[in-house]
Amino acid sequence: MFFSKIFKKKDHLHFLAQAGKHLAAERYADARVDFLEAQSRCPAEAAEEQRQIQQGIAQAGNHLAELNLEEGAHALNAGELNKAFDNFTLARQLADDPKLRARAEAGLKQLDEPQQAPPAVAPKAAAHGGSSCASCKDTGHGAVELEDQDSGMHEEDRFFLLVQPLPGDLPRRYAALGEKFVHAYLLIHEGNDAKALPILQEMLLSSENDIVIYEVALIMYRAGRAHECEELLNRSLRLNPSNATSYLALVHLHADARRFPEALSVVSRMLELGILPDQAQLMLGELHEASGDQTAALEAWSKALELPSVARPAAERLIPLLAGQGREAEAKFLAKKYLKGCC
Q1: pLDDT of residue 185 exceeding 50
Q2: Inside any domain, residue 85
């Protein structure tokens, strides 16, 4: 998952295909970002692809707007006016559907009612976790330009969309790292590791941080420096033994090198510490299968069936395994129960 991206120059068709996959998987933030990347690279003469991209941006934006409207309404009812203002403002920006924009405007008007004046905080700041990146000054690399001319989105809003899928409290912790980190993170997403690395290294000179070290580790991996990547991931985990992404990256690093005993050891540690236990249980089966131990894989995935969040993918992996062993009745039972009868 974390090492599958190859950060090299890619054309609009690559990002269009990726965006379509994210949209189908209901990963709307990732889809919108990739549609915007496709748009910035799409030739003007490719009219049909331009149309597909525009439709995708609108579709992903509408889904994200709906989510923000729901969050905004909940925050308003709970009296969290700052958060409501942020959600309604972002919904208005993301929505392509006029009805959704009207709902966002209506939400903002509610905040204008007497004794409920809109908060003075910039909308893009609190949505990232409460720290205003716009108030930070970048003294080492020049001021970060908040308006992204290619995508029409603020840098901080793009950053917000990108970090939301991260597990646990990581979206909040990523946002708290400030404007320099936001800029470096977006450079990484754009494939510009060379410019991002000095920013992250400078941040580490002033203080150790497991997230910054993790991002440097991934840059090292993409540069073909797997040994340094491993050292940095272990350093990140020494600083913060509960950083889920560092564990996942370490599992993938070992698995890519076919070092299955080390990968299994990391996953076992995750299960012991209760770190992403559902994903860890699913990965346990995948690692056993990749190492050739089908019996252990079957056992691991059978346990994963008990976890609602990963029961379906566990069943999808178990069905061909059981069928290959001639256990057709069990395979059909799982298909009926977890895949709605699809084989």
Answers
A1: yes
A2: yes
For the chain, how many structural domains are there in total? Answer: 1
Evaluate whether 319 touches 334 at the Cβ level (below 8 Å): yes
Residue 208 lies in a domain: no
**What's the average model confidence in pLDDT over 75-85?**
82
DSSP codes, 254-276: HHHTT-HHHHHHHHHHHHHHTSS
Does residue 46 belong to any structural domain of this protein? yes
Q: pTM of the prediction? A: 0.59
249, 267 in Cβ contact below 8 A? no
d(CA 263, CA 340): 33
Q: Domain span at residue 64?
A: 1-111
The verdict on residue 94 lying in a domain is: yes
Q: Which long-range contacts (CB under 8 A, 24 or more apart) does 30-33 make?
A: 30/162, 30/165, 31/56, 31/60, 32/56, 32/57, 32/60, 32/61, 32/64, 32/94, 32/161, 33/158, 33/161, 33/162, 33/189
